Amino acid sequence: MIEVVARHGQVEVARFTLPHGADPGAQVRARGWTPESVAVTGRAPAVVLAYAVSPGPVVPAPVLPGTPDAVTGEIRYAMRHTGPGGGVPQRRLAAYALVVADDRVLLTQLSQRIPDVGGDWLLPGGGIDPGETPAQAVAREVWEETGQAITGATLVAVRSLWRFGPSPDPRWSTNLHAIRLIHTATCAAPVEPVVHDVGGSTAATRWVPWAQRLNLPLVPWARLVLTGDLRP
Fold first, then answer.
1. Can you list the positions of beta strands (E) in the chain?
2. pTM here?
3. Which of 48, 56, 152, 174 is 20 to 30 A off residue 88, Cα-Cα?
4. Which CATH architecture has domain 89-226?
5. What is the pLDDT of residues 71-120, one digit of tens each?
6. Mean pLDDT, range 126-132, rounded to an integer
């Protein structure tokens, strides 16, 4: 369960359980509040996303299939899918780190075994194991994928992707809600990158000069982060 809390100063102005498929920031905006920053507490799978907010315009959140439109009352239905996992809802909570040292950014390359995005690059990170905090998970994942020791992992952004459609990866349902917790972190002693988790989803890793970071084929969400889109 993911709980979302919004506070304006010391006053709690909203609290809700994140619906499957919903973007937490969009849900906060739909309640008339603008996220200014975000923090996370708890251990997977139960975490709390705490937003510091300011008053803002009401921005309607996207309508999810099976829920009534706020204006028309019409219920939107998703088309039927028969791929692996059927329409069974799955949620993947993952943590990633934006690590910059000596004007270089740490990136990893996905294995060619990963459907659709094999060979693309992204920030190091991955799924949060049950009982882990996001900070523990991101430090572990960075070490497994790159051999770098990081400290000071701080949540700066949350990215939510809901895929209701044929899944290219048989491990996941056609009804997958992926929530990515993007952290900044410090690497005080950068070393030559090495993939410790051989045979996993990471094929290669490297320190990339910051000025060249956008020259690589990047997964879409990582490109947004690396162009400065770190809105909470």
1. 2-8, 11-17, 33-43, 46-55, 89-101, 104-110, 121-122, 125-127, 151-164, 175-186, 202-209
2. 0.89
3. 48
4. Alpha-Beta Complex (3.90)
5. 444 444 443 333 444 567 789 999 999 999 999 999 999 998 887 789 99
6. 97
Burial 147-184 (b: 16+ CB within 10 A, else e): ebebeebebbbbbbebbbeebeeeebbbbbbbbbbbbb
Say whether 7 sits in a helix, a strand or coil: strand
Query: Which ranges constitute the DSSP H helices of 36-184?
Result: 134-146
Start-end ranges of CATH 3.90.79.10 in the chain? 89-226
Helix segments in 15-124, DSSP class H: 24-30
